Amino acid sequence: MTEQTQLPKFDDGNWVKVARLAVAASVVLSGVTVAILLMAEPPDQCPSWHLKNAHSTSLWEDVVMLTAPLNIFCCFIAVRWNWFARRAIESMDRQGGMLFGHMTPPAIPVTHIMVHMCVVMSLLSQWPLFLLVTQCTVR
User: Fold this and answer.
1) HSE (CB half, 13 Å, CA atoms) of 79?
2) What pLDDT shows up at residue 116?
3) Which of 13, 124, 23 is nearest to 78 (CA)?
4) Half-sphere exposure of 30 toward its Cβ, with a 13 Å CA cutoff?
5) pTM listed for this prediction
6) Which of 62, 60, 66 is nearest to 48 (CA)?
7) Which residues, other chains included, contact 71 with Cβ-Cβ below 8 Å and sequence gap of 6+?
8) Average pLDDT of the residues in 101-109
9) For residue 27, how many C-alpha atoms fall within 13 Å in the half-sphere facing its CB?
10) Which chain regions cross the lipid bilayer (predicted)?
11) How far is 138 from 49, CA to CA, in rounded Å?
């Protein structure tokens, strides 16, 4: 008889739920940012949704170049958690325990790193919303 091997599950912990919640909140807040940029009239502090800085940075540019890619990558990790964890472990095994060119201590599980990645990238993706609130609101 052939034994069926069960692949290990990496998404059982509460920290995985925290990471997925952070990603979901990031997607919702990003949607709010896009809705504001589409539907609201730009204030005098941000004409045409451009910041009044040396480069006249567009908030749309920040959303497209920062928020969208980070949210897409975080959603991929959150939805395909087990697949991503297995690939990261396989990659570490092929590199002899090295992740991103540095020795990874065995005491730090891959899922721990993934949780931190999701939370930090979810926070970082909200930079345009932070700028919108701090630079474009009436003072």
Assistant:
1) 7
2) 94
3) 23
4) 27
5) 0.81
6) 60
7) 23, 26, 27, 30, 122, 125
8) 56
9) 14
10) 21-40, 63-83, 104-124
11) 14
